Amino acid sequence: MLSKRIKPLIIALVLYFIGFFLYKFSNGNMLLVVPGAIFMFAGLVMNVIFMIRMLKDVLNK
């Protein structure tokens, strides 16, 4: 079982890579570019939030 700290990071990375591949292989089709960009942005924001949370836990100990 994955720990509580690692699981959200994996979810965020999966979101980012789904968005990256949608964006990369869209060939200019806006129906794929827009969701790809949204998924990439969501993945990046989630990664930053969880990394800050993990850093707080490490610095508090």
Topology:
Blueprint: H1 6-24, H2 30-60
Order of helices and strands: HH
Give the CA-based shape.
elongated
Low-confidence residue ranges? none
Euclidean distance between termini CA atoms:
24 Å
Q: Helicity level, as a percent range?
A: over 70%
Number of DSSP E strands: 0
How would you state the average pLDDT, rounded? 86
Report strand %. Answer: under 5%
What does the largest sheet look like? none
Structural class: mainly alpha
Whole-angstrom Rg: 14 Å
Question: Which oligomeric state applies?
Answer: single chain
| Tally of individual helices | 2
What does this structure look like?
The chain has 61 residues and is mostly helical. It is built from two helices and no strands. The chain has helices at residues 6-24, 30-60. α1 (6-24) runs antiparallel to α2. The longest helix is centred in the last third of the chain and has 31 residues, at 30-60. It starts with 5 loop residues before the first helix and ends with a helix.
For this entry, give a set of tags.
elongated; 61 residues; 82% helix; mainly alpha
Task: Compose a concise summary of this entry.
The protein is mainly alpha-helical and 61 residues long. It is 82% helix and 0% strand.
